[in-house]
Amino acid sequence: MVLRIGQRVPDFSLPDTNKQERKLSEFTQKGKTVLLFFPFAFSGVCDKEMCVFRDGATKLNSLNAQTVGISVDSLFTLKVFAQTYNLQFPLLSDFNKKVSKAYDVLQDPWPGFGYKGVSKRAALVLDGKGILRYKWVTDAPSNEPPYEEIMLALGKL
Fold first, then answer.
1. Of the ranges 36-40, 111-115, 127-131, which one carries the lowest mean pLDDT score?
2. 76-107 burial, b if ≥16 CB within 10 A, otherwise e?
3. What's the pTM?
């Protein structure tokens, strides 16, 4: 399913690094949410991207926004990843690739290695009702998201 701006995104439930099931609606009911799909923990560009959002937490808080990271890594890998980089926002494991597929951000095959079923790098901004207000998706895993565009999109909500 291709998600379009102005559309309510599908709710989902995925485990976090503490083995707790977390629903998207739990986040969106608190306010603006940035969903960050990323290919792999500990893979250079992903590390940098998550650290940029970690370091931008004050600005995100001032915009009444929160970050949620999603990858196909196991919740155990994501736990070590969060600890290593002191990530204070939830990381969710889409190990079975259901959410990446439902959100049309599943890359198959992944460039360069032929891996099957890895999340594309994507940034989605949702309002407090779960409506998609901004979308950025790339097929090139080496591309970083446009951080300033994301902040501008949040500021407009």
1. 111-115
2. ebbbebbeeeebebbbbbbbeeebbeebebbb
3. 0.93
